[in-house]
Amino acid sequence: MARRARERLLESARDLFAADGIRAVSVEQLLERSGVGRASFYRHFATKDELVVAVLSCYNERWHAMLRTALDEGAGVLAVFDMLAVRLSEPDYRGCLALTALMEFRERGHPVRRAAMRHQKATAAGLAELLDPGLPDAERSRIGRQLLQLVDAAMITALDDRSGRPVAEARATAAALLDSTRVAHTGDSPRDSPAQEGASGHDDS
Questions:
Q1: Span 151-155, mean pLDDT?
Q2: Which one, of 73, 99, 186, 72, lies nearest residue 135 by Cα?
Q3: DSSP 8-state class, residue 161
């Protein structure tokens, strides 16, 4: 029963934060939406900030499940943009919770901002893991960060443009980046092979 109360709080917080922002949602709204009593709330979370950090942790887990799927299926890093296109086209898409947290919590030492930054860094690392293992580690890390910037831009732009264009353009930019990286390391021309999207989950970059 206690576990169920915690799950209801996490689900309600996720939905309210996505709809209204994080700071704007009060503990009272969370209690009303979840049906959880105040005493039960504070048994699970000492503060609202602690709840926000837990929601961000769940958000991070869902993101990395998607990245692991791409890695396990050998789909390559561009497949992440294809998966993202599905999510961004859904009617209930309300943006990226981690980016919302970064915009609302500017204090560098704040636990919510630290949790959001952990998500960003872990996502960049996960994208880098999908790249060609033959690339130097520093270059894979750099490209992973660049790909994250494209993902973030698509997620923000899709809030206003639901046409699918933001993620399609981000994917095309990512493909060009991967192709130029391949050319730099192999000396091939861009026409010699497709933009590293091949069969092994590492051809994508």
A1: 97
A2: 186
A3: -
pLDDT of residue 122: 95
pTM for the model stands at 0.85
Spatial contact of 55 and 14, defined as CB atoms under 8 Å apart = yes
89 phi, psi to nearest 5 deg: -90, -5
Do 170 and 44 meet the contact criterion of CB atoms below 8 Å apart? no
Instruction: Judge whether 83 and 70 are in contact, CB under 8 Å.
Output: yes
Would you say the C-alpha torsion 100, 104, 108, 114 has a positive or negative sign?
Answer: negative
Q: How many CB atoms lie within 10 A of CB 108?
A: 8
- Residue 184's pLDDT band, with cuts at 50, 70 and 90, is confident
| Longest Cα separation, the chain | 65
Cα 56 to Cα 44: distance, rounded to the nearest angstrom: 16
Band of the pLDDT at 76, cuts 50, 70, 90? confident
CA–CA dist 127, 147 (Å, integer): 7
Q: How far apart are CA 77 and CA 67, in angstroms?
A: 8
What distance in Å separates the CA atoms of residue 29 and residue 20, rounded to the nearest whole number? Answer: 11
d(CA 141, CA 171): 18
**Mean pLDDT across the chain:** 89
Q: What are the φ and ψ backbone dihedral angles of 116, each rounded to 5 degrees?
A: -65, -40
pLDDT at 197: 42
